[in-house]
Amino acid sequence: MTKQKRVMIADDDPGILDAVEAMLEFGGYNVSTTCNGATLLEMKEGFPDLLLLDIWMSGTDGRDVCKLLKQDEKTKDMPIIMISASTELEKSAKEAGADDFLEKPFDMDELLDKIKFHIK
Q1: Which one, 1, 76, 85, 113, has least CB within 10 Å?
Q2: InterPro entries, alphabetically (predicted)?
Q3: Domains recognised in the chain with CATH numbers
C-alpha cells in the first residue's frame, strides 16, 4: 500500500479549511491545516507533499511565503497551489513561484485534478 500523500492547507477562512479538508480526506489524502501561512516557514521537517496556499491571510501575504519556500533548499520542490478570490492575482502568484493557481470559489473536482497532477 502506498503511503498517503500529505496536503497542507493554509487559509484564514475556517469554512474553507473545513470544507477542503473534508473533501481531500475523502479523496484519500492526509490533510493538515493552518490559518497562518508563516507556519510553514517555521517547520524544520514533516513538510507536506503539496501546499494549498491562500494569497491573502491576516498578517501574511501568501506570495511572500511562497517566495521564501521556493528559495529554501528543503521546500523548493514542494508544489504550491495558490488560491484567491481574485483572478487578478494569478500573475503575481506565478511570479512568486506558485506551481498553479485556483480562483475561489473553486470546483472540488478541479482542485483534486490539480493536486493529482502536481503530486507525482
Answers
A1: 1
A2: Bact_response_regulator, CheY-like_superfamily, Sig_transdc_resp-reg_receiver
A3: 6-115 (3.40.50.2300)
